[in-house]
Amino acid sequence: MTKISGASSTDARQPAPMRVLLPAIPASLAIIRAHLRRWLPTAAVNASAAAEVLLAVGEAASNAVEHAVRDAAHNVVVEVTARATDTGLALTVKDNGRWHAPQSSPQGRGHGSRLMRALVDTVTITPTPQGTTVEMRKEL
Q1: What Å distances lie between residue 83 and 3, 13, 27, 30, 109, CA to CA?
Q2: C-alpha pair distances (Å), 115 with each of 3, 32, 67, 91
Q3: What is the DSSP string of 54-114?
Q4: Rounded to whole angstroms, how far apart are CA atoms 95 and 72?
Q5: Is 133 helix (H, G, I), strand (E, B) or coil?
Q6: In the CATH scheme, what architecture does the domain 3-139 have?
Q7: How many angstroms separate the CA atoms of 28 and 75, rounded?
Q8: Residue 70 backbone class (left: φ over 0; alpha: ψ -120 to 50; beta: rest)
Q9: CB under 8 Å to 21, separation ≥6 — which residues?
Q10: Model confidence over 73-125: pLDDT tens digits?
């Protein structure tokens, strides 16, 4: 299942929102990054901010692919949306899998939330029994 949308915008100043819906598998991560790389210039995002957004969204999507599928009794999908706002970007990574609380580990893992918070202005992580939603804002 692959669903990608991004129809033309009716507002000349802001591009149409981007939406990508894919299976929560490792191969989907490259597809998500590729679509985001193509969309960010349409929102007039400079190279430095684009790199930060790609890394933050990539981290959230990687978490969905790695963790949300664990112990899930159904096929898990990940949905990534990006839209321009009056002051920057609103980004969402959502899955329909199972939430697993982050753990610090001696192998240097478990720092994804801190990384996302360092790269974008706000991060809200909302776990529910139906999946996890990560909402990020990047002011430009």
Answers
A1: 17, 12, 24, 20, 30
A2: 28, 19, 17, 15
A3: HHHHHHHHHHIIIIITTT-SS--EEEEEEEE-SSEEEEEEEESS--------TTS---HHH
A4: 11
A5: strand
A6: 2-Layer Sandwich (3.30)
A7: 14
A8: beta
A9: 1, 2, 3, 4, 77, 78, 79
A10: 889 999 999 999 999 999 999 999 987 666 655 565 568 899 999 999 999 99
Domain ranges for the chain: 3-139
Confidence of residue 10 (pLDDT cuts 50, 70, 90): very low
Model pLDDT for residues 25-66, shown as the tens digit of each residue: 999 999 999 999 999 999 999 999 999 999 999 999 999 999
pLDDT band at 8 (very low <50, low <70, confident <90, very high): very low
pLDDT at 2: 59
C-alpha triplet 53, 39, 7: angle, nearest 5°: 135
Q: Coil, helix or strand for 5?
A: strand
Strand order in the sheet with 131-139: 3-5, 18-23, 77-84, 88-95, 131-139, 122-128
Residue 54 is encoded by which pair of tokens?
A: 């790609």
